[in-house]
């Protein structure tokens, strides 16, 4: 199955706690920013097909002891505007029956933006398929076939163990675009 990539908006314009609803290839999809993590859910309640993502966004209560309640998942639970069914936007699971009732979710995240990603009339340009690295010597583009030597084939370095001796650095996306994959 081919995955389609849709650009929603620049991440800098999408504050934590906000949602965007977009028509993506004929599907109405809600995209939520929950504490800087992006989640996408089909705007369709499994109960009676209401516009789920247009409902109130909040949290829910949990209790381990009778009479004691904790407010949990703030900004992570959307309530259906028609009948009040609640769903966790990060997983699509219903609050009342997470093992049987679930709303459809899609992969979402932030990627480096592209200047030419919109058509001249401002519409979102759809990029079909998955982008794979090409032309990089020694790179593997198939995640099912990782490099067996830590990606250092032919570099003349003897590795101790399976991990190459590298330093890692924290990476932040300063300018990026929120994207959804259907």
In words, what does this structure look like?
It is globular and about 50 Å long. It has a single domain, classed as Rieske [2Fe-2S] iron-sulphur domain (Rieske Iron-sulfur Protein), CATH 2.102.10.10. The chain is 0% helix and 36% strand. The protein has no helices and 10 strands. Strand 6 and strand 7 form a beta hairpin.
Domain unit count: 1
CATH fold assignment: Rieske Iron-sulfur Protein
Gyration radius from CA atoms, angstroms: 21 Å
| Straight-line N-to-C gap | 10 Å
Fraction in beta strands: 35-45%
The major beta sheet can be summarized as: 7 strands, antiparallel
pLDDT averaged over residues: 75
What sort of overall outline do the alpha carbons produce when their principal axes are compared? globular
CATH architectural grouping: 3-layer Sandwich
Uncertain stretches: 116-157, 164-172
Broad structural category: mainly beta
Can you describe this structure in just a few lines?
The chain contains no helices and ten strands.
Please specify the SSE layout and strand pairing.
Layout: E1 4-10, E2 19-24, E3 27-34, E4 37-42, E5 56-65, E6 68-79, E7 86-88, E8 105-111, E9 127-128, E10 177-181
Antiparallel strand pairs: 1-9, 1-10, 2-3, 3-4, 4-8, 5-6, 6-7, 8-10
């Amino acid at each position: 199955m081919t995955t389609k990539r849709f650009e929603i908006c620049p991440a800098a314009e999408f504050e934590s706690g906000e949602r965007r609803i977009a028509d993506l290839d004929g599907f109405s999809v809600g995209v939520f920013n929950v504490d800087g993590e992006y989640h996408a859910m089909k705007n369709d309640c499994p109960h009676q097909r209401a516009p789920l993502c247009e409902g109130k966004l909040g949290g829910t209560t949990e209790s381990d002891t009778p009479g004691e309640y904790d407010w949990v998942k703030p900004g992570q639970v959307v309530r259906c505007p028609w009948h009040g069914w609640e769903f966790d936007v990060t997983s699509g699971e219903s609050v009342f029956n997470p093992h049987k009732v679930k709303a459809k979710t899609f992969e979402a995240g932030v990627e480096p933006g592209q200047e030419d990603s919109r058509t001249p009339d401002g519409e979102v340009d759809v990029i079909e398929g998955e982008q794979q690295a090409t032309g990089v010597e020694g790179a593997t583009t198939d995640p099912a076939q990782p490099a067996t030597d830590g990606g250092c084939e032919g570099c003349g370095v003897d590795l101790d163990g399976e991990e190459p001796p590298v330093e890692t650095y924290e990476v932040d996306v300063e300018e990026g675009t929120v994207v959804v994959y259907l």
